[in-house]
Structure formats: C-alpha cells, structure tokens
Amino acid sequence: MKNVTDSFVFLGHWPSAGSFGFNTDILATNLINLSVVLGVLIFFGKGVLSDLLDNRKQRILNTIRNSEELRGKAIEQLEKARGRLTKVEMDADQFRVNGYSEIEREKLNLINSTYKTLEQFENYKNETIQFEQQKAINQIRQRVFQQALQGALGTLNSCLNNELHLRTINANIGMFGAMNEISD
C-alpha cells in the first residue's frame, strides 16, 4: 500500500512542462505499449465485437423479416379493403338505381292517389250540391204551398160559412197529410 501512496506523491513532485510540442522519442511516447494494448484489444475484443455485430445483424434481419411480413399483411388487407370497397360501390349503385325507380314508382302512386282523391272530392261536392238544391227546392215548395194555403184559407174564410169552412179545412188537412207522406 505504501508503494501506491509513494507513486502518487512521486507524481506530485514532477515539474510541469514548460511548453507544448511533439515528443519524437519512441520510448517516451510508449508506441510499443500502445501497439501491445491495441493488439490485446483486437485479439480479445474481436470475439466480443464479432458477437455484437452478429447480434446487431440478426436484429436487423429480424426487423426486415417482420417488416416484410407486416407489409405482406398490409397488402393483403389493402386488397381485401379494395374488394369490399368495390362491392360496396356496386351495392350503392344498385341501391341508387333501385331508389330512383322506387321514387318514380312512389311518385306515380302518389299522383294516381291524388287523382282518385280529387275525383272523390268532386263526387262529394256534386252530391252535396244536388242535396242542397233538392233541399232548397223542397223548402221553396213548402213555402209556396203554405202561402197558397194561407191565401186560399184567407179567401175561404172571407167567403165561407162555418160549416163549409170546417169541411174545407178537413179536406185540406187530408190533402196536406197525403202530400207530406209522398214527399217523405
């Protein structure tokens, strides 16, 4: 232990160099020592370096192989997706064509239905008009009849005596009852 301590102390007593430059003394530069160290490193480090390079080469090859597999799978999935896209586009075209024909069919059905509804409304309108005309005619007949009856009764009342008057009233009531039965 003392030798190690002495060597450090000995290093501390070296005088510092005064200038910077090249040392051309072969022994002083330890060229032989460096070549021995390099030879030992090459001899013993050759296996380690070779192993490191082989491992790196295997990792690169594995990465390339995995990339090729992934590329193949991606190409396969792309082809499947293209096939599905083509099928979907064909289905969409078919739906579009069917949709247009369905729209035209529905349009014609709607037009026909509208015409039928309009015809029904026209028929209902005509029936309502005929009903209202008949009703108005019947009301006018009843008013004319009532006015004629009142006028006749007025004339009869002024011209008839009580007995004749009662017989005429009874006859008119009978005729009026018969007319109501006919009109109903």
TrEMBL record:
Topological type in the membrane: Single-pass membrane protein
A Pfam family recorded for this sequence: ATP-synt_B
InterPro entries (alphabetical): ATP_synth_b/b'su_bac/chlpt
Keywords attached to this entry: ATP synthesis, CF(0), Chloroplast, Hydrogen ion transport, Ion transport, Membrane, Plastid, Thylakoid, Transmembrane, Transmembrane helix, Transport
Top-level taxonomic group: Eukaryota
Miscellaneous information on this protein: In plastids the F-type ATPase is also known as CF(1)CF(0).
Function: Component of the F(0) channel, it forms part of the peripheral stalk, linking F(1) to F(0).
Subunit structure: F-type ATPases have 2 components, F(1) - the catalytic core - and F(0) - the membrane proton channel. F(1) has five subunits: alpha(3), beta(3), gamma(1), delta(1), epsilon(1). F(0) has four main subunits: a(1), b(1), b'(1) and c(10-14). The alpha and beta chains form an alternating ring which encloses part of the gamma chain. F(1) is attached to F(0) by a central stalk formed by the gamma and epsilon chains, while a peripheral stalk is formed by the delta, b and b' chains.
Name assigned to this protein: ATP synthase subunit b, chloroplastic
Organism, scientific name: Oxybasis glauca
Name of the gene encoding the protein in the UniProt record: atpF
